[in-house]
Amino acid sequence: MAVDIVVPAEQEGTTAVVKSWLKKIGEPVRLNDPVVEIETDKVAVEIAATADGVLSEILLESGAEVEPGTVLGRIAGGVAAPAEAKHETPAARASAAAVRAASDQLPPGIRRMLTEHGLEAGDVPAKGARLTREDIQAYVEARGRAAPGPVSAGVTRVPHDSMRKRIAEHLSQSVRVAPHVTAVFEADFSAIMAHRNARKASFEKAGANLTFTAYFVAACVAAMKVAPAVNGRWFDDCIEIYDDVNIGIGTALGEKGLIVPVIHKAQTLALLDVAKRLTDLTERARVGKLSPSDVRDGTFSISNHGVSGSLIASPIIINQPQSAILGVGKLEKRAVVRASAGVDKVEIRPMAYVSLTIDHRVIDAFQTNAWLTRFVETLETWGP
Question: Is 41 a catalytic residue?
């Protein structure tokens, strides 16, 4: 009896590709052993075996695009897990079978060339009865993409991995569909710095790293109360505004790019709870251990771009299908004017620029400025 290995029905991200097979054909597998890894623009996910047996077929190789329900391979000689664990559809089975049939008839060199360019056999028109290298080369050049070849001296070619491709597609799509507008305010961090210095040790004992981002999350929740549409989404016939404030935190992955784990229902969390979740999510993000649920259902995002030195970034591209994203610039000491007993004085304060980039289809200027006003007020009046 053969048991199918299927892409889960719930997948977070625009599209997914097969990243790598963790088992080879003929190798034994046990129930719940990871056998294949797929990757979207948001997260990499290991798919586990749903039966004991031997990996008998690999239907889709690394680089192939997949969707929920696609059959990736098969395990022979085992007993399947309960039916509800499988998410195959008739259309997905037919699609996988067609891809397998087309791929099986191609020489290894042609398959490899297709994979290098992120293509499938059906993408490329063949001039003759069989697909050739010349067909692929012509198709690639027609799309304005350079075919693999010698690299000139002094040039380093870095091939796109699947995550980089998905990030590029996702961000380009956001710019195409949403009119981006950015407003910039300035925030004094004196109050939250004093609070953090007083509470940091006690938070560490509770297992939480108290970062400024925890305060940003709390201030976002407060600001949503004066401009709820910021926590909304555009549809062709309406705007949906959500009660749950699910805040995504942009987390750098070095050269690989960025991932956005989500703090769900932030409006229900105390500062300590926010700090604990941030600590957990950022640690797992940086070692590639996030699950699909960790990056799903965000309604708003934060980009703390100042940690890498920038004062202002505009526009910060909105994480679709959300309607706004907060940007926090570099924290630095600046001379500012403060009134004391009716007298203006110049003081040195820890300041940062904060921006809100909005989808102007959903949010207008007065809502944007009201949101930023409350956000800044929350940070600057943080209690002891």
Answer: no
